Amino acid sequence: MSRSVQVPASGTSVPVEVENPSEPGAYAVKMNVSVDGMTHSIYRNRIIREGNTSRIRKLSVNRPYIGSGSQLSVGLVAGASPDHYSDPSAEGVDAQVTVEADGEEVFSKTKEINRLSNTNTFEQLYFNSTVDDTLTTYTVSAELTANGKSYDSYSYEVDYSDFRNEVENVSLRSYEFANSSLNAEICGETDSGAPAIGEVQALVMENATLKAQESNLIEDCSSFTFEDVESGNYELVANHGSQTRFNITPGGLDTEEEDGGVPYVPLVMLMVLLVIAAVFYRGVKE
Q1: How far is it, in rounded angstroms, from Cα 146 to Cα 96?
Q2: Interatomic CA distance for residues 158 and 252, integer angstroms
């Protein structure tokens, strides 16, 4: 609420009556003294309406972009009543978190908070769920209730397009040789694995000699065509702020190469274990 009063030139104080809030909690008070529209002084304080309640202090998500099959984690911090005069305690508080996208409920979960008081001022909760469909724009809501009474509620929209989505990693989705050209599809991602948008320069190298080059604006994935490149062995260099290199062979991109190939360290460990087993067997035999 807002109220204006006139202070007489001869007076130094004036009574100001405001309506007492109906719900327990802390309320901000701001007083602005102005003359002819010019602010001379600002005073801030707060008042506390006594009573039992609970407040949502923080509501957050683990990342703005959630890919299909990835985990969405919602963090909720609930706080006790700001009333430090009568020190009420809120017991059996239900904390409910709901996520919606395109008018459809993605998930809704409820957890119970045993007690909130001046000795247990805050409670941190996490609500996790694996999503079926990719989420780029969605609404996160939370509500605290007890005994059929709503203490507090809060919601906001998460829109991935509002966040930084520059190309930080690139991958080679596919390539093929056709009509004396090399056709490749390059994808860009952020560090969180979300689709990225940015300029990528791609070079086709043969024995450290430049054969062809092309620059494209990548939006998730984009196609590159390198003309006058016959089937053979090359190195594809992608510049995107940093540099990523890919080996190009006449056989194309096989399944192992798409999945990153066989990890080197586990392979070496397996070979070492086989050698140890052979030595042990020989020792036992002798």
Answers
A1: 11
A2: 40
Q: What are phi and psi of 19, to 5 degrees?
A: -75, 135
Name the nearest CA neighbour of 52 among 87, 98, 78, 20.
87
Q: Report yes or no: 185 and 221 within 8 Å, Cβ to Cβ.
A: yes
Rounded CA-CA distance 72/26 in Å is 32
Amino acid at 163: F
Write out pLDDT tens, residues 162-173.
877 889 899 999
Give the residue from 56, 58, 59, 53 showing the smallest Cα distance to 117: 53
Q: What digits encode the pLDDT tens for the residues 48-101?
A: 888 888 999 999 999 888 988 999 999 999 999 888 788 888 889 999 999 999
Give φ, ψ of 274 to 5 degrees: -65, -40
Domains of the chain: 54-162 (2.60.40.10), 169-258 (2.60.40.1930)
